[in-house]
Amino acid sequence: MTLTSPGVGVPPLREARPRTYAMTPPVHFTVSYAINPWMDTSVPVDTERALTQWHTLRAAYESLGHTVHLVDPAPGLPDMVYAANGGLSVGDTVVAARFAFPERAAEGDLYAEWFARNGFGSVHRTAAVQEGEGDFLVVGDRILAGTGFRTQRAAHDEVAALTGRAVVTLELVDPRFYHLDTALGVLDDRTVAYYPAAFSERSRRQLDEMFPDAIIATAADAAVLGLNLVSDGRNVVMTDRAPHLEASLRDAGFRPVTVDLSELLKGGGGVKCCTLELRRHDTMSDTLIP
Ligand code: ARG
User: Is this structure's pTM higher than 0.80?
Assistant: First the structure.
């Protein structure tokens, strides 16, 4: 028993911290190319429906007391709705993405310009490919970094140097879970949930050592991108299709808030993919919120 568990079967008290997010509405969302196994260009996409679902997600954050800043969507960039990939914001530093596929390359510049224009810190670019919070997840003082499909390992060192944080490399091995945020969700400064089979043997061992109290997701949880979640430390915004994970989170003292993002799942993304956390709290400009 640890100090945080007051008694057998009594989950620790979970505390929410107000957050600031950037989101891009799926005005131009469609599946016109396939760069991950979830994308099938022969399956029709209902852009209106995607927008409605996205608005529900935005409303969920706002009703929890969080701030949402909007990034303008651009025509011809259907994946721009997955704002998590736009960069990584840690304290005064923002690292804007360098995308792996040419289809998304232009998003890197648009997010970089947006960060610079809106004062979210000094904006840096990496030489190596990295897809922002898709593959870099902040857990307390540490940054967990995925590699294997998109983000290059060399970018992990660049991000460590730029942010001054310890970066832990994790190897992804299942193409369905091509970004770290599809296989691991951050719940608070020391708690994560993950799907072990998405990681190499070595990374699995490392995760087990770092997070002995982690919540372990099932194959079914992972297969609906249940781990692609956003937590404020207590409220966990997640898909409504992962009842097992939802129950595990509840048992651990978290409060799941479920949303239907089924249309956006057709692009291979969920709740977290649509959400970029901004961690510079001193320069918020409220003119950005329409
Ligand atoms: N279609 C997008 C891609 O393959 C989905 C990105 C999902 N984003 C994420 N953070 N996992 O690049």
Answer: yes
